[in-house]
Amino acid sequence: MSHGEVLEFEEYVRTRQDALLRSARRLVPDPVDAQDLLQTALVRTFGRWDGIADKRLADAYLRRVMINTRTEWWRARKLEEVPTEQLPDASIDDSTEQHADRALLMDIMKVLAPKQRSVVVLRHWEQMSTEETAAALGMSAGTVKSTLHRALARLREELESRNRQESGDRVLEQEETERCAA
Fold first, then answer.
1. pTM of the predicted model as reported, rounded to 2 decimal places
2. Do 108 and 158 form a contact (C-beta atoms < 8 A)?
3. I need a labelling partner for 93 at 20 to 30 A (CA). Which of 2, 18, 29, 160 fits?
């Protein structure tokens, strides 16, 4: 690189460094890292300065170098393990309860009339709006709202009824177990 190009690069850096540092600050949150990023990008750009034919595009070129450098740093970061005195509790996702809940819900849905079931499925499972549900089922939005309200109330009643029945069954089982043990 000629002496004139070196001077040209120095002048470019002197006049543009504040704007370039602002760009670097947008790319990395830490101010010190932003300065390091800019410095690294300037060093890399200096080696290619004579290859930039249109110096008006130098800002764009330098910003691209900063983005690529930041990406390289991110990929090269070390994800180190940190030793601790106590291990965290391991949790294992058990979907058995979800399957049981889904099976219960599907069973409870059988108590609904077909029209009510359709409204619940479209509104809650398919997540359609009231208007979309009304259009799909050929009814008014008000009818969808009232049907949904009645259907959800019916589902709550059925669920409560089954919970009471289950509680009663458990009490009977416990009493029988106690009688057998005596």
1. 0.43
2. yes
3. 160
